[in-house]
């Protein structure tokens, strides 16, 4: 397996993976529970630069046959407002949604926004490999902290993050959901 930076041409696979990790959030962004529209929304942003869901902020993991089986989207938490701005603008213009989501990162961290693994490869350590890659990337690029949100209703994910060294931070809200911020300091 290999982890590499995503390419724009990965847009035929990665947005579907991303949707697994944040389906309810994207449904709120588009104002309806429509999987096809949600994939279209994510594909648009994955394919474009300078936004939080861009290929520029994404790593993919490939199996031995070069099939993408997982993805990690992450960015400098200090850039959240700038990266989120085109998403909010598009929501307003195309869906008449004026949602102002809470900040998912407090800034001053490498924020792991979305970690997702193909259903056929879950339970094989792929998510852990992606998370470890994100942590190592943060270290190599001078970040002093890595952070993420974990859904309060997902104790299995929280246990995985704790095994990787994440500490439990404060509870936060995001688009109607309740999450714990978790972090690793270096």
From TrEMBL:
Xref: Gene3D superfamilies: 3.40.630.30
Xref: Pfam families: Acetyltransf_1 (PF00583)
Protein name as catalogued: Acetyltransferase (GNAT) family protein
InterPro entries linked: Acyl_CoA_acyltransferase, GNAT_dom, YpeA/RimI_acetyltransf
Keyword Acyltransferase: yes
UniProt-listed PROSITE patterns: GNAT
Organism: Myroides guanonis
Domain N-acetyltransferase as annotated: residue spans: 1-186
GO molecular function, one term: acyltransferase activity, transferring groups other than amino-acyl groups
Keyword terms of this UniProt record: Acyltransferase, Transferase
Transmembrane segments: none
């Amino acid at each position: 397996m290999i982890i590499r930076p995503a390419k724009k041409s990965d847009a035929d696979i990665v947005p579907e993976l991303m949707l697994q990790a944040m389906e309810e959030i994207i449904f709120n962004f588009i104002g309806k529970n429509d999987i096809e529209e949600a994939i279209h929304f994510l594909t648009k942003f994955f394919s474009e630069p300078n936004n939080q869901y861009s290929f520029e902020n994404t790593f993919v993991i490939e199996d031995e046959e070069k099939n993408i089986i997982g993805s990690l989207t992450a960015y400098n938490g200090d850039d959240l407002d700038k990266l989120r701005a085109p998403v909010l603008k598009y929501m307003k213009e195309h869906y008449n949604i004026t949602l102002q989501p809470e900040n998912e990162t407090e800034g001053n961290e490498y924020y792991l926004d979305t970690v997702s693994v193909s259903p056929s490869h879950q339970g094989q350590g792929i998510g852990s490999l992606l998370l470890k890659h994100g942590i190592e990337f943060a270290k190599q690029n001078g970040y002093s902290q890595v952070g993420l949100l974990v859904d309060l209703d997902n104790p299995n994910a929280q246990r995985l993050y704790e095994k990787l060294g994440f500490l439990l931070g404060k509870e936060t809200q995001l688009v109607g959901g309740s999450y714990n911020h978790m972090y690793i300091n270096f």
